[in-house]
Amino acid sequence: MEPVSESELSKMIAGADGPLQIIGGGTRPVGRPVDGAALSLAKLSGVVEYEPGALTLVVKAGTPVAEIERLLAAEGQRLPFEPMDHRGLLGTKGAPTIGGVVAANVSGPRRVQAGACRDYLLGVKFVDGTGRILKNGGRVMKNVTGYDLVKLMAGSRGTLGVLSEVSFKVLPEPPAAAVLRLGGLDEARAGEAMCAALRSPFEVTGAAHLPADITGENAATLLRIEGFEASVSYRAERLGDLLDGFGKVEVERDEAQIAQTWSAVRDVKAFHDHAGDVWRYSVRPTAGPALGASLRAMGAQALQYDWSGGLVWALGPEGADMRPEGLDGHATLIRAGKETRARLPVFQPEAAPIQKISQALRDRFDPRGILNPGLMG
Amino acid sequence: MEMPTPDSSVIGKKPQLISRLMELLPNDAIIHEDIETRAYECDALTAYRCAPLAVVLPSSTDEVAAVLRICHEMRVPVVPRGAGTSLAGGALPTADSVILGVARMTEILETDYDNRVIRVQTGRTNLSVTGAVEEENFFYAPDPSSQLACAIAGNIAMNSGGAHCLKYGVTTNNLLGVTMVMMDGEVVEIGGAHLDACGYDLLGLICGSEGQLGVVTEATLRILHKPEGARPVLMGYDSSEVAGEVVSDIIKAGVLPVAIEFMDRPCIRATEAFAGAGYPDCEALLIVEVEGSEAEIDEQLEVILDIARRHDPVELRESRSSEESARIWLGRKSAFGAMGQINDYMCLDGTIPVSQLPFVLRRIGEMSKEYGLDVGNVFHAGDGNMHPLILFDANKPGDLELCEAFGADILRLCVEVGGCLTGEHGVGIEKRDLMFDQFAPDDLDIQMAVKDVFDPKWLLNPAKVFPLAASAGRRAA
Questions:
Q1: What does the mean pLDDT of chain B come to?
Q2: Is residue A313 part of a domain?
Q3: Which H or E run contains B267?
Q4: How many Å lie between the alpha carbon of A216 and the closest alpha carbon of chain B?
Q5: DSSP label at B432?
Q6: Cβ A53–B251 below 8 Å, yes or no?
Q7: CA distance B308 to chain A (A)
Q8: How many Cα atoms are found within 13 Å in the side-chain-facing hemisphere of B296?
Q9: Residues 440-459 of B with CB under 8 A from A
């Protein structure tokens, strides 16, 4: 099924007599396996409204992310949350859509400073499991009118409704950037350096650590600064002074090189072309290095730290349960075979009362249980 | 404002309720004498008053849970209350309800600079969260103008904003986790010092739900290092269209000021008479503030001043000292007090797309003449959040009703041009009956379905947010 309009989407869902598998660009097959008729949003595409002077963008859910990025770049603006492209990691093809980004609440390295996809999402239109066309939020930056279902829909992975239209707050793309690089730090020390940088007033917009592991290169700790030229130079120098105790600081100012470095961090390029399951952990940043050590003990062959240590990526043996006991945060199984994804919890199991609320919400939004059933557990 | 008829059977259970509460909480945590409950009869929307059945002031999450279990079992409605500064009547009691105030829960539970989080009990005031981390030059970013008095609990309930949210976002963007007590007394933990929900974003759902889904007793908040400095510039223009263009051009130029404030002529005149900040007598005044080191501020202001000059300002004043900065902000910060000096006022907070500003201001001016009530406009121009202040005389019969009708027309106008009823104050009872102007019946139905999930008996913060007729069936069920 490939609806070309919101009303057609509504009719298809209302008329569905079995489970539906909701597909944006099909580039992020994360979650428990779903059996159902494919419902693609690819044809529900296009920009509805873009006001650069108001920093607001309204688009249909099936619009390719690349198209949006081009549109914004022409006005010197961008999606501030730097959505990850999962294709390299998951070995998928196709064009990632903005609806998919929202459905999975996908953010990148800048999340640590700027916020997540959900923080920039101003409004949604969606079709619930009965076919009703619903809206929440709008296209203005401040809106507390009624309950915030915008946040609820972000990250609900098509299990509460099928997004048809989304609106965002966008931000200017700063004209300059710098990356400070510390070489050869061990993970605990790298964690300290990243936290020291983030507790400074210098607005670090990326803090990642790439251990030597499988890249064969020296371990690198990367700190990104963005803004106007004089400001970037000033902050790069001050931050360099602040990190003096962590060894020699190299400063990269080449625009293309910086873009390449951070898209590699964003898309976890180090893991591409390596077999194994991929796990993703969100923890308190200072807990990152210790988690990394436990993951290695459990068999992880490679790790990557982002968000100042708060986001840990692990490449583990196929089929292994890589969830350490007593994890304070959450683990998500991003890449694994179908059998593993059916056997292990893909998402962090929720406490009983939360599980009850989640199920009750699903029952209200999708009483027939036809939207991506079972995907979130 | 219509409120549901109090349930006389609940009122009849008062002695039993009080004695059960007495078994659980220290005596000084329960207020039930009529003369004392009167202190809780309203919040900052003082036009509506109703003393509650009783007030309880627990000191811990466990005590909150115990109180809610009893109220749930006895089917007594509960109105959660932070500091009672809501301008929307978000904490207005009903005669058959218990006020559950978190004012005694003010502890700091954890301060963690490396992870840039603080965990507090939610009765703590907004400004005192910043106060607790100032020694390390940190601050908590959301800054509603009531920040000296308002509680984090209320900030979370209303998803409060402030003048600086163009850069730092509102409460929901700075909230990482909560401990919440459900109406049946169950305690749930949502989020924490780590980022982003793995399952549904219940944290985002709870923030802004006006105390209707649960009582938030503890919160993990994002704290940030303070910028090295900040500096405002003041600009005056002869038309609101031009001022609107200046705002749009600044944003398009890639500068992200931390605040862009707008005042119109009636408001400028009122504040000049009150505070004498030396503002020019013009149609539209902008205060634009940027942050950073001295060099960074200079770099941003160069871009901003260049744009300002191109639009032919009647006045352009860059601050050169902290005294001058304070003077630039003086009039804006005393705007509410200045309007209050003239008469009683009602403050609205509808949001509009920034491009609609000139049209909306013109229409408000026309309506002001039609209604015969003066209005001044203060405005967070960067994010479109308006604050029209309508002047009326509370002692003149019919004036409040006239003012409310005028206010409703302004809010409908905000919705018509693509905006919303409330940008940061919340719906409460004040905008409850306008919800159908913004939402189709199905859009409200799905929100009420969420309420059904969290509070199936509809006991938490009754009569707020949803029009009474729309929720009648669910409340009776």
A1: 95
A2: yes
A3: helix B265-275
A4: 30
A5: G
A6: yes
A7: 15
A8: 25
A9: 440, 442-444, 446-447, 449-454
Which of A227, A249, A266 is the last residue before a domain boundary? A266
CATH code of A108's domain: 3.30.465.10
**Interatomic CA distance for residues B99 and B230, integer angstroms:** 41
Q: Is A241 in the same domain as A302?
A: no
Q: Last residue of a domain, which of A134, A150, A172?
A: A172
User: What SS3 state is found at B105?
Assistant: coil
**Contact residues on chain A for B251, CB-CB shorter than 8 A:** 52-55, 172
Could you say which residues from 8 to 47 on chain B have a Cβ atom under 8 Å away from some Cβ of chain A?
A: none
- Residue B129 above 80 pLDDT? yes
Q: A246 in a domain, yes or no?
A: yes
The answer to whether residues A163 and A184 belong to one domain is no
Domain that holds residue A223: 176-266
- What is the rounded CA–CA span in Å between residue B6 and residue B386? 35
Do residues A323 and A196 share a domain?
A: no
Tokens (6 digits) for A255:
């625009």
Residue A161 sits in the same domain as residue A204: no
| Structure confidence at residue B276 as a pLDDT band (50, 70, 90) | very high
* Contact (CB, 8 A) for A276 and A303: no
Q: Which residue is associated with the tokens 């949003």?
A: A41
CB contact under 8 A, B427 and A145: yes
Domain contains A351: no
Nearest CA in chain A to B424: A144
d(CA A217, CA A341): 32
> Rounded to an integer, what distance in angstroms lies between the CA atom of residue B67 and that of residue B459?
13
Distance between B315 CA and the closest CA of chain A, angstroms: 23
**Residue B476's pLDDT band (boundaries 50, 70, 90)?**
confident
ipTM of the complex: 0.97
| A213 has a chain B CB within 8 A of its CB | no
Render pLDDT for A283-332 as a digit per residue (tens, 0 to 9): 999 999 999 999 999 999 999 999 999 999 999 999 999 999 999 999 99
Please check whether residues A320 and A285 belong to one and the same domain. yes
CATH of the domain at A216: 3.30.70.260
State yes or no: pLDDT of B295 exceeds 90: no
User: Could you tell me if A90 and A36 lie in one domain?
Assistant: yes
The domains located in chain B, with CATH, are 8-103 (3.30.43.10), 230-335 (3.30.70.2190), 343-416 (3.30.70.2740)
pLDDT in tens, A181-237: 999 999 999 999 999 999 999 999 999 999 998 777 899 999 999 999 999 999 999
Six-digit token string for B166: 């163009």
Compute the average pLDDT of residues B223-250: 94
Domain count, chain A: 3
Question: Which member of A51, A138, A173 has the closest CB to residue B355?
Answer: A51
Q: Does A10 share its domain with A125?
A: yes
Chain centroid offset of residue B374 CA: 24
With a CB cutoff of 8 Å and minimum separation 6, the contacts of B315 are B234, B235, B236, B280, B282
Q: How confident is the model at residue B337 (pLDDT cuts 50, 70, 90)?
A: confident
Q: Is residue A59 part of a domain?
A: yes
Q: Which of A141, A149, A160 to mutate to test the interface with B (most CBs of B within 10 A)?
A: A141
Residues A54 and A77 placed together within one structural domain of the fold: yes
CB contact under 8 A, A51 and B424: no
The strand ranges marked E within B223-362 are: 224-225, 230-237, 259-264, 284-291, 315-318, 344-347
Query: Residues 209 to 228 of B: which have CB under 8 A from any A CB?
Result: 209, 225-228
Burial A286-304 (b: 16+ CB within 10 A, else e): bbbbebbeebbebebbbbb
